[in-house]
């Protein structure tokens, strides 16, 4: 059994999900205890990540990496999954028909995401991606009586299926022209004399296109606003946080490991996707009146910055991506926790930007938290959101991509406009109808914690988080 | 000799039943001919030594897909004669697709005979003394154990998803309570009476 030790965290989540489903099928429905068990499982998996031999390297014949990079990503994924489950407490109706399936699906999706960040083989990569995506399709249309939720699920499913097809096409080309599905073997093929082989290049392009869909990078971002708007808010938070980070780290590993020798081939793709995502994410957010759509464009925008770090390549680039992902997740989860607080007097969720007007007068603390997240997402200096952006630009400049860093920094200013617009609406507009005050101390605590991390106090984290991400990036 | 005979037998029946799938008037008969075609195709595959794929064809296509077709044909009220009315009109289109497929087969065979296309061919796996099924099982349960188990989880997600998205507990149907049925005693449900003639009975 010792050879299974490196996948102990995945085993806890996967077997736990199955056991939870079985137990939940035989006991009273609609109770909330399944949520707590799922959260306990995710936290146990995080503990196991620390305890298990995470320096085992490549296991299972080189198909799976249990290294620091994967562990870093898995902690982010598991914690954001746990937050997504906490969020659901107040979101779904009290005795919702399928109360137990929600945590089970989140657990399975988190398991797929964990496999994605660990995969060092194209087959493993695809299996992990599908497990994560299929759970996500179901979660997106979880409130199936809600028209928008059903639409989001269907849209996500159809476009996700298309992206999987594109990815598989790329994988089959890579396999055909390199003769192996292992990342190491593919790297050898890219470094060999057939490096200029048109087949390998095609495989690279299609694989990256498929992954670009999963991380919602322009030009494969079209599904994001609709899905993020229609899906239940806790699910959207998980999509924007855990799932997105898993896909970004997957892209990082495949670019820096399997395709490392073909740096010039993938760098231009990544640079284009990065710039296009930053600019489109900023410009398209202008006319949005729905908070969730706004955050969807914000996530497209942020993916662009993470890709700037990836374009830098090498260990420094990987470290920048990891650091950026960690802080991005905190900001995003914080913002979505605040969105969950937006409920009208009857307790129904509202999502329009207009309903935020004058929030500083009715709910000063909530308004301050949203303002902190918005300033931080915009990357305005005193807040911690500035630091990862600086790291990313730094990595790009060190890699000789000064123009890219300059263009991305300029585009930050465009993005700042709509983040600041939210703050302006909250602080300078006439108050709208006040929100209902929900009693959920845990969520309040999480908002406060997230706000504390991205506040200027977060700079204290630079040391430990920097060491962790440097250690994680050292695998490349 | 016997192998050659078997090949021609399987091949002839496959083609004949495939033709009958198209020309059978009754859609249920079409599906039955299709099952026969599948069986004979499995026989052909068996002759080439790929016993695992042959069994897979029988189990998956005959056991699941064809039966599903049969269910669809018998359960749904589809007017097949109206579906077939455009046969001559769509004939050129069908012929075109058939030509494209034929060209692809010719090209594929030609390319295969021209030698390996790929720049870097993987070493062909050594032909051991073990049978196909044994070799597949060894690969699936040792080297590819984790992806294989994860594929199982994906199917589980599909099942959960189907239930989450379609199941609803209906209040207007009376479910069966097996416990109550079993615990019912004869003396609770029946009684012995001796009706007197001409007095009627109380119910």
What does this structure look like?
- The complex is a heterodimer of chains A (476) and B (203).
- Chain A has 476 residues and is mostly helical.
- Chain A has helices spanning 8-26, 33-51, 68-91, 101-118, 122-140, 147-178, 183-191, 198-214, 223-230, 233-258, 263-283, 291-312, 314-340, 359-362, 364-378, 386-398, 402-428, 441-454, 462-473, and strands at residues 57-59, 64-66.
- In chain A, α5 (122-140) runs antiparallel to α10.
- With 203 residues, chain B is mainly α.
- Among the domains of chain B are: 1-77 and 91-117, NADH-ubiquinone/plastoquinone oxidoreductase chain 6, subunit NuoJ (Four Helix Bundle (Hemerythrin (Met), subunit A), Up-down Bundle); 132-163.
- The chains are: A mainly alpha (476), B mainly alpha (203).
- At the A-B interface, α1, α4, α5 and α6 of A face α7 of B.
Strand content of chain A: under 5%
Give the oligomeric state: heterodimer
Overall geometry of chain A comes to globular
How far apart, in Å, are the first and last alpha carbons of chain A?
29 Å
Question: Largest interface: which pair?
Answer: A-B, 41 and 26 residues
CATH topology of the domain at 1-77 and 91-117 in chain B: Four Helix Bundle (Hemerythrin (Met), subunit A)
DSSP E strands of chain B, number = 0
Question: Which value, in Å, is the CA radius of gyration of chain A?
Answer: 21 Å
Mean pLDDT of chain A, rounded to whole units?
Answer: 86
Detail the poorly predicted runs of chain A.
Answer: none
Helix content of chain B: 55-70%
* CATH architecture descriptor of the domain at 1-77 and 91-117 in chain B: Up-down Bundle
- The count of strands of chain A amounts to 2
Mean pLDDT of chain B: 84
Helical segment count of chain A: 19
Uncertain ranges of chain B: none
Major sheet description of chain B? none
Pfam family, one (chain A): Proton_antipo_M
Membrane topology (chain A): Multi-pass membrane protein
EC number (chain A): 7.1.1.-
Transmembrane segments (chain A): 6-26, 33-52, 64-88, 100-117, 154-177, 197-223, 266-287, 294-314, 320-340, 365-387, 399-420, 441-462
């Amino acid at each position: 059994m010792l050879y299974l030790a490196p996948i102990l965290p995945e085993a806890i989540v996967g077997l736990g999900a199955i056991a939870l489903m079985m137990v939940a099928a035989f006991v009273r429905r609609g109770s909330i205890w399944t949520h707590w068990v799922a959260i306990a499982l995710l936290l146990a998996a995080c503990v196991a990540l620390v305890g298990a031999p995470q320096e085992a390297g490549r296991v299972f014949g080189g198909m799976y990496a249990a290294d620091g990079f994967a562990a870093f990503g898995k902690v982010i994924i598991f914690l954001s999954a746990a937050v997504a489950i906490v969020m659901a407490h107040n979101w779904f109706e009290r005795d919702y028909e399928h109360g137990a399936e929600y945590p089970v699906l989140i657990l399975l999706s988190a398991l797929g995401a964990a496999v994605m960040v660990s995969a060092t083989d194209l087959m493993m990569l695809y299996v992990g991606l599908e497990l994560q995506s299929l759970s996500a399709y179901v979660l997106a249309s979880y409130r199936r009586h809600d028209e928008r939720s059903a639409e989001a699920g269907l849209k996500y499913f159809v476009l996700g299926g298309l992206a999987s097809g594109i990815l598989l096409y790329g994988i089959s080309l890579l396999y055909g022209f390199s003769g192996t599905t292992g990342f190491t073997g593919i790297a050898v093929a890219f470094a060999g004399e057939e490096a200029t082989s048109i087949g390998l290049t095609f495989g690279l392009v299609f694989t990256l296109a498929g992954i670009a869909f999963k991380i919602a990078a322009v030009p494969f971002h079209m599904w994001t606003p609709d899905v993020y708007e229609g899906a239940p808010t806790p699910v959207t938070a998980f999509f924007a946080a855990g799932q997105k980070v898993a896909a970004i780290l997957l892209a990082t590993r495949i670019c820096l490991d399997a395709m490392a020798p073909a740096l010039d081939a993938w760098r231009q793709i990544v640079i284009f996707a990065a710039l296009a995502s930053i600019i489109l994410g900023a410009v398209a957010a202008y006319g949005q009146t729905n908070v969730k759509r706004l955050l969807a464009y914000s996530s497209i925008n942020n993916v662009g910055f993470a890709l700037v770090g990836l374009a830098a390549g090498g260990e420094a680039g990987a470290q920048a991506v990891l650091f950026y992902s960690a802080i991005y997740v905190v900001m995003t989860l914080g913002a979505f926790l605040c969105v969950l607080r937006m409920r009208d007097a009857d307790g129904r969720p509202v999502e329009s930007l207009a309903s935020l007007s004058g929030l500083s007068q009715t709910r000063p603390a909530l308004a301050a938290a949203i303002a902190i997240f918005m300033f931080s997402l915009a990357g305005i200096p005193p807040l911690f959101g500035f630091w990862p952006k600086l790291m990313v630009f730094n990595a790009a400049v060190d890699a000789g991509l000064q123009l890219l860093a300059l263009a991305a920094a300029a585009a930050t200013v465009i993005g700042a406009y709509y983040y600041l617009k939210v703050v302006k609406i909250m602080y300078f507009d006439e108050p709208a109808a006040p929100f209902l005050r929900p009693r959920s101390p845990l969520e309040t605590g999480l908002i406060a914690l997230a706000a504390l991390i991205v506040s200027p106090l977060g700079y204290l984290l630079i040391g430990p988080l920097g060491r962790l991400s440097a250690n994680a990036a050292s695998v490349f | 000799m016997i192998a050659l005979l078997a090949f021609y037998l399987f091949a002839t029946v496959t083609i004949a039943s495939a033709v009958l799938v198209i020309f059978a008037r009754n859609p249920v008969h079409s599906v039955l001919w299709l099952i026969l075609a599948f069986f004979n195709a499995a026989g052909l595959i068996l002759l080439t030594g790929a016993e695992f794929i042959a069994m897979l064809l029988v189990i998956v296509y005959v056991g699941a897909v064809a039966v599903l077709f049969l269910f669809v044909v018998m359960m749904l009220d589809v007017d097949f004669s109206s579906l077939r009315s455009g046969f001559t009109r769509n004939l050129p289109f069908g012929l075109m697709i058939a030509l494209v497929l034929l060209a692809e087969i010719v090209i594929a065979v030609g390319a295969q005979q021209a030698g390996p296309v790929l720049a870097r061919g993987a070493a062909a796996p050594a032909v051991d003394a073990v049978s196909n099924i044994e070799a597949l099982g060894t690969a699936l349960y040792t080297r590819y154990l984790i992806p294989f188990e994860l594929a199982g989880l994906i199917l589980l997600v599909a099942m959960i998803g189907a239930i989450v998205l379609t199941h609803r507990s209906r209040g207007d149907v009376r479910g069966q309570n097996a416990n109550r049925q079993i615990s019912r005693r004869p003396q609770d449900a029946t009684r012995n009476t001796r009706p007197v003639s001409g007095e009627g009975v109380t119910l």
